[in-house]
Design goal:
This protein is α+β, with helices and mostly antiparallel strands and 142 residues long. The protein is built from five helices and eight strands. It starts with a strand and ends with a helix.
Length: 142
């Protein structure tokens, strides 16, 4: 490990942690600089409040919330936080998301801008409702 004058090089530790696969969301968040950690915790807490029954895990190498299947994912990148709520949510909130870059199932929130926490919450609640309705329909068919 990179030790200079008996002091651990924290940048080396962060890079090492980010390069290794985290086992928990806490480990994932700890692998980023403090400024990004704050943003990731805001994201995480917003999801938790909107979906209190959802479970946390690392899926596809990124923070994932599940409730009757995958609910939402998020990830940190150099210039943005990626949010992956499924194509149906992107379509449902197309107008509100029009100021952000994204694709069929993803949104990019710039790191230098304030997160739209109320919008994120609405999207997560939409996904909760969607997953629960899907589960209910599958029970009826059986």
């Amino acid at each position: 490990m990179n030790i200079g004058n008996g002091v651990l090089n924290l940048n080396f530790i962060r890079l090492s942690m980010a390069a290794s696969k985290p086992g928990t969301i806490d480990e994932y968040i700890a692998g980023y600089p403090p400024k990004v950690q704050v943003i990731l915790e805001q994201f995480r807490n917003t999801i938790r409040k909107a979906a209190p029954r959802a479970q946390e895990k690392i899926g596809y190498g990124i923070p994932t919330f599940t409730l009757e299947g995958n609910l939402v994912h998020f990830a940190a990148f150099k210039n943005h936080i990626g949010f992956y709520p499924a194509p149906s949510a992107i379509k449902a909130f197309n107008k509100e998301l029009s100021n952000y870059d994204g694709a069929k199932g993803s949104i990019k929130f710039p790191i230098e801008e304030q997160l739209p926490l109320s919008l994120i919450s609405k999207i997560v609640k939409f996904r909760v409702k969607e997953n629960l309705e899907k589960k209910k329909k599958s029970k009826i068919k059986k």
